[in-house]
Amino acid sequence: MAYHSGYGAHGSKHRARAAPDPPPLFEDTSGGYSSQPGGYPAPGADVAFSVNHLLGDPMANVAMAYGSSIASHGKDMVHKELHRFVSVNKLKYFFAVDSAYVAKKLGLLVFPYTHQNWEVQYSRDVPLPPRQDLNAPDLYIPTMAFITYVLLAGMALGIQKRFSPEVLGLCASTALVWVVMEVLALLLGLYLATVRSDLSTFHLLAYSGYKYVGMILSVLTGLLFGSDGYYVALAWTSSALMYFIVRSLRTAALGPDSVGGPVPRQRLQLYLTLGAAAFQPLIIYWLTFHLVR
Question: Which regions span the lipid bilayer (predicted)?
Answer without folding.
Answer: 139-161, 167-192, 204-224, 230-249, 270-288
